[in-house]
Design goal:
This protein is of the alpha+beta class. It contains four helices and four strands. Strands 2-3-1-4 form a four-stranded antiparallel beta sheet, covered by helices on one side.
Length: 139
């Protein structure tokens, strides 16, 4: 029996444009962009797509905790506003998606809401150690 190849996890860390409020950016990303982008991603075989919103109000307290409570003074909390994550069977699927003319139009709109001059990619294989701890049992 053949073993399935692990999915590729691809994170894109995005900063919002300075010309848009955080609430407006989050609303656009999760309610406007997602409605347009989702069907296109499905067409190109993207297995899963998530968005992680990183509100400004979370960053300061976490930076403080790292330095004072967690003993990690040199660690950072980046100022990304959104991390969008794709699970792919192949990098070819992402290549096909991002070369579609409809995707190019979506990216034109994204350029008005996001600061595309900076960002960050993370790519690799996700290893799930546990999932679905519904009873909350632990330490």
């Amino acid at each position: 029996m053949a073993t399935a190849s692990p999915l590729i996890k691809f994170d894109v860390c995005i900063y919002k444009s300075d010309d848009i409020s955080e609430d407006e950016f989050f609303n656009w990303a999760t309610k406007v962009y997602s409605v347009k982008a989702g069907p296109l991603m499905k067409r190109y075989g993207i297995v899963k797509w998530t968005q992680t919103l990183q509100p400004t109000g979370f960053r300061g307290p976490m930076r403080h905790a790292l330095k004072t409570d967690m003993g990690r003074p040199d660690w950072t909390v980046p100022d990304y506003d959104l991390v969008t994550t794709y699970w792919l069977r192949s990098l070819d699927d992402m290549q096909a998606l991002t070369t579609d003319p409809v995707w190019a139009e979506l990216e034109k709109d994204a350029a008005t809401k996001s600061n595309l001059s900076i960002g960050h990619f993370v790519i690799g294989h996700e290893v799930v150690q546990f999932e679905g701890n519904v009873d909350g049992a632990g330490a």
